[in-house]
Amino acid sequence: MAKGKSLMLGIMVGGVVGAVTTLLTTPSSGKEFRNKVKDQSQEWMELLENLKLDGLRLKNQIAATSKEGVSLIKDLTHEMKSSIVEWKESVEPHQKNIHQYLEQIESSLKDLEEKVNASKK
C-alpha cells in the first residue's frame, strides 16, 4: 500500500513541477498567466478527483474479489475433505483384502524358504 501512495505522490509532484515549469517559461501577460494557472489547477483537481474515484473503485473491487476468493477456498476445502472421506471409505475394504493377500504371500515365502533350506541339508 505504501508503494502505491509513493507512486501517486510522485506522479502528483512531477505533474505540478512540470505544469509550473511550463507556465513560467512561456512568455505571456499576467492576465493570460493567471487564466492558465486557473485552468491548469481546475484540470489537476479534476484529475485528482478521478484518481480518487478510481482508487475507491479499485479498493472495492479488491475487497469483493478477496471475499469471493475466501468463499471459493472454503468450498474447495470442504469438497476436498468430503472426497478424501469417500476415497477412504471406498479403499478400506480393499485394504483389508490386500493385507490378507500379503500375509498369504509372506507365509508362502516362508514355506518356500524352509523347503529350500531342507533340500540343501
TrEMBL record:
Origin: domain of life:
Bacteria
> Which PANTHER family has this protein been placed in?
GENERAL STRESS PROTEIN, IG HYPOTHETICAL 17707
For this UniProt record, the keywords arranged alphabetically read as follows: Coiled coil, Membrane, Transmembrane, Transmembrane helix
InterPro entries assigned to the protein according to its UniProt record, in alphabetical order? Desiccation-related_membrane, YtxH
Q: Can you tell me where the transmembrane regions are?
A: 6-26
**Where are the coiled-coil regions?**
34-68
Q: What is this protein called?
A: YtxH domain-containing protein
A Pfam short name: YtxH
Organism of derivation: Ornithinibacillus massiliensis
Asked if the record carries the keyword Transmembrane, the reply is yes
